[in-house]
Structures are given as C-alpha cells and as structure tokens.
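User: quick one, sequence for these tokens?
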C-alpha cells in the first residue's frame, strides 16, 4: 500500500535518498550510542526465540542483529522502499532471508494487515510522525511482550535542532517534519496499556526506553 498523506510521501522520498549511506554507515561504523543502549535494554527484557516487529526498520541492521543473537524472526515496516531494498540485500548476505520479511508503506495504514509480535521496536520513529499517540497505540496493539523505543529528549537544544530542521525542510519544499513529543505523555500511553518500564538510558540527544507487559 502506498503512503497517502503528504507527510508520509515526503518522508519516504527523504529517507530513500540516504538508504545507501545508512547501509554504508552501519557496515563500517556499527551502532550509534542510543542503539547500543537499545540492545542493552532488549537483552535485559529478553528476545531469544521471540518474533520481532520493527516499525521504521531502515536498512535492517537492528533486527537482523537480534536474529543473529537468538530472535526467531522479524518483520520490518518502512516508508522508504529504497531502505527495504538495502535491508533485503543485507539479510541475504547475512543468511537471514528466510527469517525476515519487509513491507513498504505507512505503518498506520498497514497495521490491520500486520501480525502481532512478541517484541516491537520504534527506533527514532516517534519523532518522525506527527500523530505520536496514534503511532504508539497502534504499535502497542501489535506488541505481545516488549516494546522498545528511542526518541528525542525534551531539551531546549533538541527543540532548537528540530525547529531548524523543519525550517530547512520547508525551504526545500518537503512536507516531512521531525517532532519532539513529550516523554511523560508517551510513558503514560504505554503504562496505561499495561506495560512497565524495565530499562531507561540517555545520550545527549536521545531517550531510550524498554517496557514489558505486566
């Protein structure tokens, strides 16, 4: 299914431009600090022999690493088809094609067609979507045991950076915008759904949180 809203279409075009760069970066430099924290938190929560759903899965480096470390299978949902092309190629080279599935499109529109998973991941996805509440709740509906997130900390400098990014995107004619959503509200949505936070860490820019179903 194609993205229908201007924001999703613009986000798809924007991230497709950088697919090869993302692939090269992770192949040569590995995980960012916030993603290392995400893996640390998931180790604590447990993912061995679990199914994984990653929304905004990029070039696949995160869930493919989980598969290599013991997860059972993974589905990646990604707006940018070029990202999925890179992820599929990378999965083949890592002998993971039979345990991965990649779907291109807007998760909010595709959610009804996607099976639930034991573990769901939103790595730097909440900040790319205007409807944070809808995104979090739809992901929770697909989460059996563990939900893992990284998103911007609510600081003056993240607001400034996001504001400047939005200005640049407006000037170049893109409808895509980044966002800084309230972490307190995000945590409230997740805990109201019956999850308890079991891990939290930060970098200068990012907040990493892992929640387990109570």
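Assistant:
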């Amino acid at each position: 299914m194609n993205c229908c809203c201007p924001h999703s279409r613009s986000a798809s075009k924007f991230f497709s431009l950088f697919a090869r760069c993302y692939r090269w970066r992770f192949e040569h430099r590995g995980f960012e600090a916030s993603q290392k924290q995400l893996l640390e938190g998931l180790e604590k929560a447990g993912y061995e022999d679990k199914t994984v759903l990653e929304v905004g899965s990029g070039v696949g480096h995160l869930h493919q690493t989980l598969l290599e470390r013991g997860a059972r299978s993974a589905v990646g949902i990604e707006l940018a088809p070029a990202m999925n092309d890179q992820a599929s190629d990378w999965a083949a080279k890592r002998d993971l094609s039979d345990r991965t599935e990649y779907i291109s499109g807007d998760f909010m529109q595709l959610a009804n067609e996607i099976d639930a998973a034991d573990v769901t991941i939103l790595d730097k996805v909440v900040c790319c979507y205007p409807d944070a509440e809808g995104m979090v709740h739809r992901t929770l509906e697909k989460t059996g045991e563990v939900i893992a997130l990284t998103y911007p900390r609510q600081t003056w400098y993240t607001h400034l950076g996001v504001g400047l990014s939005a200005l640049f995107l407006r000037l170049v004619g893109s409808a895509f915008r980044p966002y800084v959503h309230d972490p307190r509200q995000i945590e409230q949505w997740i805990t109201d759904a019956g999850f308890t936070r079991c891990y939290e860490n930060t970098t200068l820019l990012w907040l990493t949180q892992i929640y387990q179903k109570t």
